[in-house]
Design brief:
This protein has 2 helices and 14 strands.
């Protein structure tokens, strides 16, 4: 990967996933899925779907000391879910470019820091530059304000899943920040002391 900020995970990660699936009339039903497993090949982890990015972020964030408790997937306004990633985690800025319509969108509050950023385009070791993308945040204790942000990616071509960047972020109100990743109603949350759970919001 061109970007030095990709952080591989050591060992396999197994977590039970609870999903809330939209049903009729906008209601949500609970469905228990199979345990998710990130397979290991050398120093890199590999996932089977975008949901595995949350597992990777959660594992990395726990080791980083700031557990990620809220997540949001990146989806373009055109509906596409694959992006190129340009990032400067020293300055705290990242931009995603839709692989379909080529629209660029600053991730989170990155637009506030782009003027001083030196963005690097990320590339998977397999050579692909397209990624599924998920952001996770850690909060201050007893607060809804953001303390740390994580940018995780999965290569649809080979499945490599990694945290490509993370930095201190003091945004007031995690829901507003994650809404800048994509639609606010798709923000997901979990208790860091419980199995990884994902919640849909009607």
């Amino acid at each position: 990967m061109h970007n030095k900020s990709a952080h591989p995970t050591a060992g396999n990660v197994f977590l039970w996933i609870l999903a809330f699936i939209p049903a009729v009339d906008g209601l949500y039903v609970r469905q228990e899925l199979h345990p998710m497993a990130l397979s290991q090949n050398g120093k890199f982890s590999y996932g089977e779907s975008q949901i595995d990015i949350r597992v990777e972020i959660a594992d990395y964030a726990n080791r980083n000391g700031y557990p990620a408790t809220h997540f949001a997937d990146a989806v373009c306004s055109c509906g596409h879910r694959s992006f190129k990633l340009l990032i400067d985690d020293t300055e705290g800025a990242a931009v995603r470019e839709c692989s379909s319509c080529k629209e660029r969108h600053p991730i989170g509050d990155s637009s506030d820091y782009l003027a001083d950023a030196s963005l690097e385009e990320c590339e998977c070791p397999c050579g692909s530059e397209d990624f599924e993308m998920t952001a996770g945040v850690a909060l201050y204790n007893d607060s809804e304000d953001v303390r740390w942000i994580y940018i995780g990616c999965r290569c649809p071509k080979c499945g490599l899943t990694a945290c490509y960047g993370d930095w201190k972020n003091e945004y007031e109100g995690y829901q507003k920040l994650l809404a800048k990743i994509w639609r606010a109603e798709q923000v997901e949350t979990r208790n860091p002391h419980q199995p990884l759970c994902f919640h849909g919001f009607p």
